[in-house]
Amino acid sequence: MTIERWSIPNRWVWCTAADVARIVGGGTPSTKVPENFSNNGIAWIGPADLTNYRKTYIGRGRRDLSERGYANSGATLLPAGAVLFSSRAPIGYCAIAANPICTNQGFKSWVCENGVSPEFVRHYLLASTDYADSLASGTTFREVSTKRVESMAFPLPPTTEQLRIVAKIDGLTARLARARAELDRSSALAAQLRKQSVCRAFDGSLTADWRMVRDDSGIVTDDALDQAYRIEAGSPRRKPPSEIDWRPRFNVPPSWRWVSIDRVVAQVQYGSSAKTTSDSSGVPVLRMGNIQQGKLDRTDLKYLPRDHHEFPDLLLKQGDVLFNRTNSFELVGKAAVCGDLNKPTSFASYLIRIRPSGILPELLSAYLNSPFARSWIERVASQQVGQANVNGSKLKALGIPLPPFDEQAEILQRLSNVFAHADRLEAEASRVRVLLDRLEASIFTKAFSGELMPQDPNDEPASVLLDRIRAQRASTPKTKGRRKRAVAV
Questions:
Q1: Are residues 336 and 294 in contact, defined by beta-carbon separation less than 8 angstroms?
Q2: Residue from 201, 192, 194, 193 nearest 401 by CA
Q3: 133-170 exposure pattern, b = at least 16 Cβ within 10 A, e = fewer
């Protein structure tokens, strides 16, 4: 929504926030309020309490104020029905007080006058976040001042129409919420489909029918793996591969075998710890943040000079698998295959480059991203200072099921088909989400321009309501002294 005033019905009137509500700021006590502190005192709301908050009303937050804390906070006790509006970044969080409540300094709450629906105001504010943000100022943090909130343009309908609009919006947005929930289930289904298919790929069930109609190609022999190593590494192995330290506990088909990661790769190598820059004329360096959802994301890159002393030894090639050895516990161990790199590319020290020889790179990456490898990571990862680490030695000793070479190709083809189907499900869900967002925006545009509901000629004009509010304010004696008091509606 924009600042310009649009066309509204004749029985509506344009006014300002100050015409229809008292704009009340919050306050913060002189001493920090502990998280989850409660002595059955006064509910004290901060913007964090409204993060991802979707309900209309809020009664309590993470913190309460004691009577002493309230007295030292400078906050005004807001009545039930006050519309809490976050005016300090993030701007635009909004809910209605379910009971008397206080807020911190990040709010400019609306205490609505008689005849002005708090629910209508809330819908308007939620639809006007861009407008409110355009009124903000500040460099360290952006904030909308009380004066600017008071000056916000507000389309005021007759009271009865406000209520009809609120009921209509609530009904339509409830249907949109149900549609979004269904889309979320589609996304969850896609994720589950990928996970189950990967598990079936590595326990042999994904290609069970394929094996039944083909001659047994036999277990991949040590000689075949040694030859694959020589081709990839350019020389024979200098020492025996690592033994399996851990593997999932399930049986594999008779034509398969269990091997260590070290047995099917030609190289396990740490990346560069050299300081990178933003000079894009250099060689891009992939970091842990460039691995997203099993794929490489090249949108945020750092660079090393082209003549860096670790090149070409640390330059990647197509088919290399990158393994994130250090990250938060939830993210450590993610992996991705290097596809067509287009230009020389390197990798940072928190990543390990794995160069497969006896297994397809895509299968190795899928296994490292699988629930099986996740169980292994939870067992072997070391943690310190909020970071988890899985070193190269542990990685080499991870057990992996090894199908015959021709079956690897069949598994990869079937996994690719399943993943493509899951991608289409997610893409369609994303497309529909965009349409739902546009539909919701259209609902609000129509609601606040008077086009959502038919006009009732029997409604009292909003101009009469506004005159009554002004007359009531003029007849109410002004109070002197401390501003701290419950704001009357």
A1: yes
A2: 201
A3: eebbeeeeeebbbeebbbebbbbbbbbebbebbbeebe
Task: Walk me through the domains of the chain, giving residue ranges and CATH numbers.
Answer: 13-158+466-475 (3.90.220.20), 218-403 (3.90.220.20)
* Whole-angstrom distance, CA of residue 150 vs CA of residue 426: 43
Cα-only R_g, the chain: 31
Collapsed DSSP state (helix, strand, coil) of residue 20? helix
Distance CA 107, CA 76 (A): 11
Summarised one tens digit per residue, pLDDT across range 109-162 is 999 999 999 999 999 999 999 999 999 998 778 899 999 999 999 999 999 999
Measured between alpha carbons, how far is residue 329 from residues 167, 385, 400 in Å? 46, 11, 22
* 66 class by beta-carbon count within 10 Å (0-12 exposed, 13-18 middle, 19+ buried): middle
Helix (H) or strand (E) holding 355: strand 351-356
Specify the 3-state DSSP secondary structure of 410.
helix
Assess contact for 102 and 77: CB atoms under 8 A: yes
| Cα end-to-end span (Å), the chain | 28
Tens of pLDDT along 13-46?
Answer: 999 999 999 999 998 876 665 555 555 678 889 8
CA atoms lying within 13 Å on the CB side of residue 185: 6
Tens digits of residue pLDDT in 194-247:
999 999 999 999 999 999 998 766 899 999 999 999 999 999 999 999 999 999
- Evaluated on CA atoms 149, 152, 156, 162, the torsion sign reads negative
